[in-house]
Amino acid sequence: MAILSTGPIENNPVSGVRPTQQVTIRLVSRAMDSVTVSIQGYVLSTTRTLYVSEMISIAPNEAVTRDYFADLNAFEFVFETSTEGAEEVGISVWGKQASGQLVDAHRVVEHEKTVKNN
Length: 118
Hints:
Blueprint: E1 2-5, E2 9-10, E3 22-29, E4 35-44, E5 48-58, E6 63-69, E7 74-81, E8 89-96, E9 102-108, E10 114-116
Antiparallel strand pairs: 1-7, 1-10, 2-7, 3-6, 3-8, 4-5, 4-7, 8-9
């Protein structure tokens, strides 16, 4: 089992508008068997509050995309993969403006995630 995190992502308003209003998460399986991924999203303020909780089963060679609300001052996403094939799942996180434009500062690709130890 692998646990990966985006780490805290600051999204404070600039001229009254937060840079990111939506987060798109892309999961790609290169495993030989189905892999289960748990996605947890947290609002970060004085407390850490869970606001996204989803389990996704990904078939071999399948790509899955999910969109989540992110018009928040700070947030974090944590991914937990099933034991089998954990290293065979590519995960990327993309912050987007309301118009759908990517926010470069809020993109986390596969090699930039933090691995958490149990």
